[in-house]
């Protein structure tokens, strides 16, 4: 599961204020189900009712983005780097691998978190 290696690669002091941001409910659900056994925090997401759960307090400073393309990420953050790509052991060609396979590590939101978080809310 590449998000776990991307998250674990963060320096410990940065990981303390990091979150994994999933773009759709399938990604958020998979990360919620399988992430804890891989040492991941609960994912945050702006999709559907996931948004209602919030983004944590204090808000994250570094985000591992799953399901976002680079252009969308660049609109939200000043700095994003490609950390990995979504894969699966079976080699299945699913939407995550086909549409937005990049796993990005992003820093420096372009807006304060209380302004950015509502912008992430969407129906999926």
In summary, what is this structure?
With 124 residues, the chain is an alpha/beta fold. 32% of the residues lie in helices and 23% in strands.
Roughly what fraction of the amino acids lie in strands?
Answer: 15-25%
Order of helices and strands: HHEHEEHEHEH
**Biggest β-sheet strands, sense, barrel:** 5 strands, mixed
Shape: globular
Structural class: alpha/beta
Number of domains: 1
Cross-sheet strand order for the largest sheet: 2-1-3-5-4
- Residue share in helix: 25-40%
Distance between the amino and carboxyl termini:
23 Å
Count of alpha and pi helical runs: 6
* Beta strand count: 5
Explain what the structure shows:
This protein is 32% helix and 23% strand. It contains six helices and five strands; from the N terminus they run ααβαββαβαβα. It has helices at 2-8, 12-15, 25-34, 70-76, 95-99, 113-119; strands at residues 18-22, 44-45, 62-66, 77-85, 102-109. The chain has a five-stranded mixed beta sheet with strand order 2-1-3-5-4. 31% of the residues are buried.
Task: Give a topology summary.
Blueprint: H1 2-8, H2 12-15, E1 18-22, H3 25-34, E2 44-45, E3 62-66, H4 70-76, E4 77-85, H5 95-99, E5 102-109, H6 113-119
Parallel strand pairs: 1-2, 1-3
Antiparallel strand pairs: 3-5, 4-5
Which terms would index this structure?
alpha/beta, 6 helices, about 30% helix, about 25% strand, globular
